[in-house]
Amino acid sequence: MKQITLINGDGIGPEICDAVVKIIEASGLKINWDIQTAGADVIESEGTPLPERVINSIKKNKVALKAPVTTPIGKGFRSVNVQLRKELDLYANLRPCKNLPNVNTKFSNVDIVVVRENTEDLYAGIERQIDADTAESIKLITRKASERICRFAFDYAVKNNRKEVCVVTKANIMKLSDGLFLDCFRNIALSYPDINKREILVDNLCMQLVQNPAQFDVLVLPNLYGDIVSDLCAGLVGGLGIAQGANIGADCAVFEPVHGSAPDIKGQNKANPTALLLSAVEMLKYINENHYAVKIERALFKTFEQGIYTCDLGGQASTTEFADAVIKNLNQ
Ligand code: ATP
């Protein structure tokens, strides 16, 4: 039986985790969950929000499903999410954004996968204060990181029957840094003759996304543009409650929703488990359990088609009622 690390998080984490685990179990797929607590709740007993045992569990199992984890502000702890990415070298951030039935958005046929480089660019943390009125941040782009993220995007496209990969840069202005990223894309693209290639400048992309998003398939971007564009795309399909994500490296992968732990609605049985469920569906595709991934995705879509959803999307269903409706639809 496949063993997977389950980080049930804090805030609404445990509630949405219960819902998702119940749905996966009802699909017939047997998973041995290696449950690991993390975040604000373990600080007192273990002195850190991210104990070593959590990292070791993911290294051992290679795959984790993670609910949101709060890093307390102002107590000197590094962000749990950032630390996980660094320690496990999760270099690719994957954000599939697809319309769900009955979720009211401006466009109805969006199906975009954003692949964001996760380790460098302006996020490398190379900054200095030149004088009291001047600060400098360095945009670091390397061939190694750029080639591996472009290869990841093309491999994802092949594995998931996608037609096109589009690289997003501002290479007309940052000729060296973004120019290098673009050059890496062109080199890697040569190995994928069956996938269409497209190049676009980030400002043009943003305009096109809000006018005609259906034209885009897989996007690959350096870190900063990827951060901004992935939120833009999440907004196109309905926002936080349904925005799934994953951070993937050469050895390990962590699948998690984009939203935070939503302490304002904790314990009220009204959180939307869709983003975590879609993250789990992507995880099942990653571990080649496609049959169950498709089965759960279909049941989820059917639930939306029936007009059953949680209150963040204008519905009436509680977290548990929503999960029960998805389970009912699994075998129909
Ligand atoms: P963080 O800094 O951890 O991202 P945040 O407060 O900025 O936290 P969220 O925790 O994602 O962001 O919450 C933002 C808003 O969206 C809150 O009002 C929250 O209730 C709502 N929200 C987030 N996730 C969900 C969800 N799964 N279901 C329903 N509402 C949600």
What structural keywords apply?
Nucleotidyltransferase, domain 5, binds adenosine-5'-triphosphate, alpha/beta, 10-stranded mixed β-sheet, Isopropylmalate Dehydrogenase, 20% strand, two-stranded antiparallel ribbon
How are the SSEs placed, and which strands pair?
Elements: E1 2-7, H1 13-26, E2 31-36, H2 43-46, H3 52-61, E3 63-66, H4 80-87, E4 92-98, E5 111-117, E6 127-131, E7 134-137, H5 143-159, E8 164-169, H6 177-189, E9 196-201, H7 202-211, E10 218-221, H8 223-237, E11 244-248, E12 253-257, H9 274-286, H10 290-305, H11 319-330
Parallel strand pairs: 1-2, 1-3, 3-12, 5-10, 8-9, 8-10
Antiparallel strand pairs: 4-5, 4-11, 6-7, 11-12
Helix pairs in contact: 1-9, 1-11, 5-6, 7-8, 9-10, 10-11
The structure holds adenosine-5'-triphosphate.
Adenosine-5'-triphosphate (ATP) binds at residues 12, 240-241, 259-262, 264-265, 271-272, 275, 312.
Tell me what you see in this structure.
The protein is of the alpha/beta class and 332 residues long. It has 2 domains: 1-105 and 238-332, Isopropylmalate Dehydrogenase (3-Layer(aba) Sandwich), CATH 3.40.718.10; 119-222, Nucleotidyltransferase, domain 5 (2-Layer Sandwich), CATH 3.30.420. Helix content is 40%, strand content 20%. It has 11 helices and 12 strands. It has helices at residues 13-26, 43-46, 52-61, 80-87, 143-159, 177-189, 202-211, 223-237, 274-286, 290-305, 319-330, and strands at residues 2-7, 31-36, 63-66, 92-98, 111-117, 127-131, 134-137, 164-169, 196-201, 218-221, 244-248, 253-257. It has a 10-stranded mixed beta sheet with strand order 2-1-3-12-11-4-5-10-8-9, with helices on both faces. Strands 6-7 form a two-stranded antiparallel ribbon. Strand 6 and strand 7 (134-137) form a beta hairpin. It is globular, with a radius of gyration of 20 Å. The model has no long low-confidence stretch (mean pLDDT 95). Adenosine-5'-triphosphate (ATP) binds at residues 12, 240-241, 259-262, 264-265, 271-272, 275, 312.
